[in-house]
C-alpha cells in the first residue's frame, strides 16, 4: 500500500470533521474519494498533503510516517480545490518554472499544452484566465512534477467534456506508469468506469470501500447500478 490512512480523526474545536478514517491507495490504481459536498473529502486530502495535522491516527506514505517526511520529499502531485498560482507569471512561465524544478520528468511541455488546449492562453497571467483554463493550468502543473502519488481535489470543476476526457486519459497513463492516484469528487458520474476502487465518505466517515463489485456485494446491491446509485442507496440504508 503506497498511501495508507489509519484511524484518522480530525476536528475544528469541538466540531468533529473526520471519524476513524481508514483506507489505502495502491500504486497502479485510480481510487475515487467520493461523497457529497461537506462530507470531509477536502479535509482528508489536506491531512494527506500536510496542510492539516490529524488529531489522532497515522498516515503512511510508502511505509513511512507522513509526519516524519519533509514537504520536499513527499513525491505527491496535488491539484487543490482552489487555484494556487503566481499572479505575476504567465501561464507558460508557470509551466516552465515547474519543469525547471523537476527536470527529470520527461513529459513534453508542448505536447501537454496541446492536449490541454492551452495554446491561446500561454502569455496570459492568471487573472486573465477563465475558471476552466485555470483548472487546466493546474492539471498541467501537476503533471509536470515528479511524483509517485497524484492527488486531485474536485479536478473536473470548470472543464468541458473534451477536456474531462483528456484529463481522464492522462490519469489512465499515470496509472499505467504505476502511480498511486486519488481523485476526490462529488460528481460521481465523472469517475464511473475510471476508478479501480472507491472510498465512499459521509459525514466524515468511510461508509464503503472497495471496487464497485465489492461494495455492491457487501451491501447486497445490484453491481449493474451506477456508482452514484450505489452511494445513494447506501446512504438511504444508513438513515433508516
Automatic annotation (TrEMBL):
InterPro entries the record matches: AAA+_ATPase (IPR003593), ABC_transporter-like_ATP-bd (IPR003439), ABC_Transporter_VariousFunc (IPR051782), P-loop_NTPase (IPR027417)
Gene Ontology molecular functions: ATP binding; ATP hydrolysis activity
ABC transporter domain span: 3-228
Cited Pfam families: ABC_tran
CDD domains assigned to the protein according to its UniProt record, in alphabetical order: ABC_DR_subfamily_A
Coiled-coil parts of chain: none
The keyword Transferase appears for this protein: no
PROSITE patterns listed in its UniProt record: ABC_TRANSPORTER_2
Transport keyword on record: yes
PANTHER family: ABC TRANSPORTER ATP-BINDING PROTEIN ALBC-RELATED (PTHR42939)
Annotated protein name in UniProt: ABC transporter, ATP-binding protein
Lineage summary: Bacteria, Bacillati, Bacillota, Clostridia, Lachnospirales
Amino acid at each position: 500500500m503506497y498511501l495508507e490512512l489509519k484511524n484518522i480523526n480530525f476536528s475544528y474545536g469541538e466540531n468533529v470533521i473526520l471519524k476513524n478514517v481508514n483506507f489505502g491507495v495502491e500504486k497502479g490504481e485510480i481510487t475515487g474519494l467520493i461523497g457529497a459536498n461537506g462530507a470531509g473529502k477536502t479535509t482528508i486530502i489536506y491531512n494527506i498533503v500536510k496542510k492539516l495535522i490529524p488529531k489522532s491516527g497515522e498516515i503512511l506514505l510508502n511505509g513511512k510516517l507522513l509526519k516524519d517526511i519533509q514537504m520536499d520529499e513527499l513525491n505527491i502531485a496535488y491539484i487543490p480545490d482552489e487555484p494556487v498560482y503566481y499572479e505575476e507569471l504567465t501561464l507558460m512561465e508557470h509551466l516552465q518554472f515547474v519543469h525547471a524544478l523537476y527536470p527529470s520528468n520527461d513529459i513534453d511541455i508542448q505536447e501537454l499544452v496541446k492536449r490541454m488546449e492551452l495554446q491561446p492562453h500561454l502569455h496570459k497571467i492568471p487573472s486573465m484566465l477563465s475558471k476552466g483554463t485555470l483548472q487546466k493550468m493546474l492539471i498541467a502543473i501537476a503533471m509536470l512534477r515528479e511524483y509517485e502519488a497524484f492527488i486531485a481535489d474536485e479536478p473536473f470543476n470548470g472543464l468541458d467534456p473534451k477536456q474531462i476526457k483528456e484529463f481522464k486519459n492522462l490519469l489512465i497513463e499515470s496509472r499505467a506508469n504505476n502511480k498511486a492516484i486519488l481523485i476526490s469528487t462529488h460528481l460521481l458520474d465523472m469517475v464511473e468506469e475510471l476508478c479501480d476502487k472507491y472510498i465512499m465518505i459521509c459525514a466524515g466517515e468511510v461508509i464503503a470501500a472497495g471496487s464497485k463489485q465489492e461494495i455492491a456485494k457487501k451491501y447486497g446491491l445490484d453491481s449493474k447500478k451506477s456508482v452514484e446509485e450505489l452511494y445513494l442507496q447506501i446512504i438511504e440504508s444508513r438513515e433508516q
